Amino acid sequence: MGKDTKIEWATHSWNPWFGCAQIQGRRACQNCYAKAFTKRMGLDVFGKDKARKLFGERHWREPLTWDAAAAKAGRRDSVFLMSMGDFFDPHPDVRAARSQAFRLIEQTPHLVWLVLTKRIRNVSTMMRANRVYEWPSNMWLGLTVGTQEDADEDMYVLQDIKAQNTGCHTFVSVEPMLTEINLRPWLSALCNPDWVICGAESAPGKRLGRPLDVDWVRDLRRQCNLFDVPFMYKQGPVDGKLVELPELDGVVWNQKPVWLEG
Questions:
Q1: Domain ranges of the chain
Q2: For the chain: N or C, fewer Cβ within 10 A?
């Protein structure tokens, strides 16, 4: 979980802790890859009452070295925060680590921190609790939606956060894509998301999980093209197998927003 991640939309991935709890009724949580991964590591950190796995000083120094390398090379690298839990998890074990992570983001201006959450309603309260009153210029907020129900429930919150915070970039991860999803009401808005990523569910061994209808992907691509929102088709089924960056009608859709390339 670190340097040179295999995740297509980030340079690195990094976690201030391991562990989370399934959101009741959220279909995207049902086959959590992070829960399965930590279980194979011998960790029991998923559940409302389970202790989270925290890390020491050496782990926390890693992003500082990435920032220094990016500064020396004259570039900005991206960091997926976090792949093994939820940054806005309300668990008491992680309060100090979240506060420390906010300080780390401030200390690493050559890193773009891509924060992905299913708990979008906790964002504003937790940022205020950590005395973060101005949105960090190198922190971008992503929301996971797996179904139309998720989108209808949470997309307005993501939109409001962007509207209320100057300089806040947002993105949507439609992974795993479990239903056809209409994002037109939010893609057409003034405070629309800057990027949409979608993909099929992966099962252990990088196998295909629950089915994805490629026509759902085509429709989401059309929505993004209509409103000039960069679109990435991250992974999908090809001949029954899970393929990274598969072609969609003869084209690999690996678009990224300018603010991530710069």
A1: 1-144, 167-177+189-262
A2: C
